């Protein structure tokens, strides 16, 4: 597995796990109450910071455990990444559209912020899965 | 998605062995791509850019159409 493909796997796993932890924190804080009343701002900001830090740390750990042959990307890596971004973009669009509708109906800020954030996560999942499938099956 | 993703065929593997058993890593180094990309091209899982195709042919000291091929269209145009 190339350095860039490993990076894509790390991006996927970190995105999903960190978002899972965030949702878990929200649900446990709400304790069966209304989600929109949960103080979500600090957990959301910490989640974004944690995802960046976790991505870097996991990347380093993976390279220590299974070092790559080279650390450069080539034309295939770049093409597959472009395909991923093209598909992942729909996650951002969907998140923005949902947030727009929520703003129009004057929903709580909680739902608007979380719709946008979920859009980012969906985008990360779509793009990394698309790229990984392209690595595995070919293009 | 099934079968080979590309119709481009190649004889890289045979030519590598004909050129003193050049390894995939050596070919990758000469062309400037990763070994995984050489493997993907060999297995028909990736169609390289024209520039990389020329570099592969040069590294294997063979004309481009000896390294890469493309099937003739059938009479019904498929």
From TrEMBL, chain A:
Keywords assigned by UniProt, alphabetized: Membrane, Transmembrane, Transmembrane helix
Residue spans crossing the bilayer: 9-28, 40-62, 83-105, 111-135
Protein name per Swiss-Prot or TrEMBL: Uncharacterized protein
From TrEMBL, chain B:
Pfam family, one: HTH_3
Taxonomic superkingdom: Bacteria
Chain ranges of the HTH cro/C1-type domain: 12-67
UniProt keyword rRNA processing present: no
CDD domains per record: HTH_XRE
Taxonomic placement: Bacteria, Bacillati, Actinomycetota, Actinomycetes, Micrococcales
Molecular function via GO: DNA binding
Matches recorded under SUPFAM superfamilies: lambda repressor-like DNA-binding domains
Protein name stated in the entry: Helix-turn-helix transcriptional regulator
Keyword DNA-binding on entry: yes
Keywords linked to the UniProt accession: DNA-binding
């Amino acid at each position: 597995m190339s350095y860039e493909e490993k990076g894509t796997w790390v991006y996927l796993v970190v995105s999903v796990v960190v978002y899972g932890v965030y949702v878990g924190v929200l649900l446990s804080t709400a304790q069966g109450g209304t989600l929109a009343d949960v103080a979500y701002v600090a957990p959301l900001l910490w989640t974004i910071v944690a995802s960046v830090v976790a991505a870097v740390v996991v990347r380093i750990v993976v390279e220590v455990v299974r070092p790559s042959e080279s650390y450069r990307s080539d034309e295939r890596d770049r093409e597959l990444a472009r395909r991923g971004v093209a598909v992942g973009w729909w996650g951002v669009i969907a998140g923005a559209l949902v947030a727009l509708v929520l703003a129009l109906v004057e929903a709580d800020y909680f739902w608007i912020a979380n719709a946008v954030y979920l859009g980012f996560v969906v985008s990360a999942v779509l793009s990394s899965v698309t790229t990984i499938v392209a690595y595995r099956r070919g293009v | 998605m099934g079968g080979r993703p590309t119709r481009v065929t190649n004889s890289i593997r045979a030519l590598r062995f004909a050129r003193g058993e050049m390894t995939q890593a050596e070919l990758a180094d000469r062309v400037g791509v990763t070994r995984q990309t050489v493997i993907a091209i060999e297995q028909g899982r990736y169609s390289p850019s024209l520039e990389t195709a020329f570099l592969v042919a040069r590294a294997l000291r063979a004309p481009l159409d000896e390294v890469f091929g493309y099937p003739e269209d059938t009479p019904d145009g498929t």
